Amino acid sequence: MALGERLKDIRDDKDISIQELAANTKISADKLYNFEINNEKPNIFQLDKLAQFYNLSLSDIVNKEEVEKELKIRSWIANLMIIPAVFSFEFMNENIYISIFMIFIMYVIGFYSTHFGKMTRIMEQLQFENPLVSIIKRYLNRRRSYIISFAMFTLGIIMAIINYKTSFGFGILLALFGFFCILASAMIWDSNKNSNHSR
């Protein structure tokens, strides 16, 4: 069954009009109608609104395969949004306005791609793994991941301190990247371990 037909069946089962659904989800009635006749495909956040209104899990409405491409694109945007912030440190000594602008760009991209972090919950519901996490798990184990991350962080700090005038920006950049790699390693290798202990 196509996604649009599924959406219409759910609405019919709940005995809700398109106008009522539009008023409660803030999605226009025209869009909802186009979703149901498969003229337009809803994005994951619109599907999430519908699932919440119907009090259903997102996986009851949509299959992971139907939104996998969008999830991958949004995940990569979110993964890469750190680049402007990291590189802003390289320009901090030259022009602080460039740094501020790059950090602003990071937030705009981040908010657009994840809708203030809503995508994390959506990915969990659909059991979708961030593609960057999949790559890391394929080529690294827990020990190597932490060693590389701490090495980058330490080297960056040393470079920033020893060559303050010439390498401060690059040193901070490397240290910050290492710090985020440490956080990523903890999330990838140890978050499930902690959740299992709590159970």
TrEMBL record:
Keywords linked to the UniProt accession: DNA-binding, Membrane, Transmembrane, Transmembrane helix
Alphabetized PANTHER family for the sequence: HTH-TYPE TRANSCRIPTIONAL REGULATOR XRE, TRACRIPTIONAL REGULATORY PROTEIN-RELATED-RELATED
Annotated PROSITE patterns: HTH_CROC1 (PS50943)
Positions of the HTH cro/C1-type domain: 7-61
MF (Gene Ontology): DNA binding
Transmembrane segments: 95-113, 145-162, 168-189
Lineage top rank: taxon: Bacteria
Family matches, as CDD domains: HTH_XRE (cd00093)
Protein known as: XRE family transcriptional regulator
InterPro entries tied to this protein: Cro/C1-type_HTH (IPR001387), Lambda_DNA-bd_dom_sf (IPR010982)
SMART domains noted in UniProt: HTH_XRE (SM00530)
